[in-house]
Design a protein that fits this description.
By secondary structure, the chain is α/β, with parallel strands linked by helices. It folds into three domains: 43 residues; 123 residues, 3-Layer(aba) Sandwich (Rossmann fold), CATH 3.40.50.1010; 64 residues, OB fold (Dihydrolipoamide Acetyltransferase, E2P) (Beta Barrel). The protein has ten helices and ten strands. The longest helix has 29 residues.
Length: 284
């Protein structure tokens, strides 16, 4: 065989060998990646093979490791599903609303409805207030916790306790949860209500709601009112309408303790609400 034929044979062998390697690489790339359980079994088997154990025992231990991994994965998935469970019409109560307690009565008459949500952080704040050294705070905290417990047992009312999930100030947690579950917040905290509205979360301030529901009086309207205290101005007396609206009665100081007929003369709007000023009307 001459030199030229030898060189050709060598080239053909090299080309065939390269083709086989390329095909092998393609097969490796197209192989399906093993699952987490298979990896666990493989790794477990490799580790156990370094220990002098019979192959049958090694396979049994690898199978147990695979089952344990599968169980953990399923538990984690279930936890994720539970944490993302939808809550219909959630209403989040903050500490101030629970202490105020009016929300409980409003819910009973149907003004508020849905699933009432209380976070663990809110319960912790209530407990701290109930354990306060200040007698007044302690009483209010305990009364609020008792009221919440009775509210939970009320027929037709649904109350759920949710974990905080992350460490944050309670107000931020309430806003985050309300945004996550697309719920509303009921509060007596002016700042919380404003923060929630900035975050595009609906917040109902009970004090603001109370002012909206107060009597819409006009100059010239007449009321009967009991004068309960002296006013700041000369000769003034002060009474209150059934909704709590303050009514200042000109020349009413001498009639303290009596119920009189008055006519509204002017109205002043303040941060605390409206103050009505009135004049005495002669009794018929």
């Amino acid at each position: 065989m001459n030199d030229k034929s030898k060189i050709k044979n060598k080239k053909s062998k090299i080309t065939a060998k390269q083709g086989k390697n390329t095909a092998k690489k393609i097969r490796v790339k197209t192989e399906v990646h093993p699952s987490g359980v298979e990896v666990a079994k493989t790794v477990g088997s490799e580790v156990l093979q370094n220990i002098m154990l019979p192959p049958r025992v090694i396979r049994q231990i690898a199978d147990e490791v695979g089952k344990a991994v599968t169980k953990r994965i399923s538990i984690r998935r279930n936890k994720t599903r539970k944490s993302n469970k939808k809550i219909d019409n959630p209403v989040f109560l903050d500490t101030s609303a629970i202490i105020d307690m009016r929300v409980f009565d409003l819910a009973k008459i149907g003004a508020f409805y849905g699933n009432f949500i209380v976070l663990d952080g809110v319960l912790s704040e209530l407990k701290n207030i109930a354990d306060s050294k200040d007698a007044l705070k302690k009483e209010r905290g305990r009364r609020a916790m008792d009221g919440l417990e009775k509210f939970k047992k009320t027929r037709g009312i649904k109350v759920k306790i949710l974990p905080d999930e992350v460490e944050k100030p309670v107000d931020e947690l309430i806003i985050d949860h309300a945004k996550k579950y697309r719920g509303r917040i009921i509060t007596c905290d002016y700042n919380l209500a404003k923060k929630a509205k900035i975050s595009n979360v609906t917040a109902i301030d009970l004090y603001e709601m109370t002012n909206i529901l107060k009597t819409q009086a006009l100059p010239g309207e007449e009321f009967f009112v009991k004068i309960v205290q002296e006013g700041k101005g000369l000769g003034q007396g002060v009474g209150y309408l059934p909704d709590g609206t303050m009514l200042v009665v000109e020349q009413g100081r001498t009639l303290l303790g009596k119920t009189v007929k008055v006519e509204v003369s002017r109205i002043i709007q303040t941060d605390a609400g409206k103050i009505l000023f009135s004049k005495l009307k002669p009794a018929n």
